[in-house]
């Protein structure tokens, strides 16, 4: 029995189509399986978290020292207040430290200024007219003859030195 060539080609084309459909179904089945595995893994993670929290809650509630949720809230509130007080005290100490440092610097500046002024007063004047050398501004008294003269040096305003010649009678 011989199959005509046209029928053979039709059967081969149908066979290829069925093969593609089967491959697609297997591929879809693989994807569906992977999605199911991912969802199952996520559910197991959630369940593990629930069990861990349940165990923790059981252990806390079965501890004789545990006074309940309101006690925990009070304890947490006290801890927060203590932390705020500690921070406030640290800030006050920092402000006091800064003020002390500012006062110390101010004292040092005042002392340095006082030393500078004392050094300026102690050193001789550098300007020749203030040094008391050279021509003086003294007065010579005239008119009466006298055998002896005396001189007296005085220091006036602004550190000027003058010499007075006085004739004795």
Overview of this structure, please?
The chain is mainly alpha-helical and 169 residues long. Among the domains are: 8-63; 68-122. It contains two helices and two strands. It has helices spanning 5-61, 69-122; strands spanning 149-155, 161-167. It has a two-stranded antiparallel ribbon with strand order 1-2. A hairpin with a 5-residue loop joins strand 1 (149-155) and strand 2 (161-167). The longest helix has 57 residues, at 5-61. The chain is elongated. The chain starts with a helix and ends with a strand. The relative contact order is 0.04. The model has no long low-confidence stretch (mean pLDDT 81). It comes from Smittium culicis. Keywords: Cell cycle, Cell division, Centromere, Chromosome, Chromosome partition, Coiled coil, Cytoplasm, Cytoskeleton, Kinetochore, Microtubule, Mitosis, Nucleus. It is found in: Chromosome, Centromere, Kinetochore; Cytoplasm, Cytoskeleton, Spindle; Nucleus. This is DASH complex subunit DUO1. It holds the Pfam family DASH_Duo1.
């Amino acid at each position: 029995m011989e199959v005509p060539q046209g029928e053979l080609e039709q059967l081969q084309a149908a066979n290829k189509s069925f093969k593609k459909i089967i491959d697609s179904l297997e591929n879809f089945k693989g994807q569906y399986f992977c999605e199911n595995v991912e969802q199952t893994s996520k559910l197991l993670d959630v369940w593990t978290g629930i069990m861990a929290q349940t165990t923790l809650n059981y252990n806390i509630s079965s501890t004789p020292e545990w006074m309940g949720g309101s006690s925990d809230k009070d304890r947490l509130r006290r801890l927060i207040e203590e932390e705020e007080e500690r921070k406030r005290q640290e800030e006050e100490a920092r402000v006091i430290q800064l003020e002390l440092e500012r006062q110390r610097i101010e004292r040092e500046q005042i002392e340095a200024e006082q030393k500078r002024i004392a050094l300026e007063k102690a050193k001789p004047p550098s300007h020749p007219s203030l040094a008391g050398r050279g021509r003086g501004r003294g007065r010579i008294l005239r008119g009466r003859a006298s055998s002896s003269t005396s001189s007296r040096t005085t220091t006036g305003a602004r550190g000027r030195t003058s010499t007075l010649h006085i004739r004795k009678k």
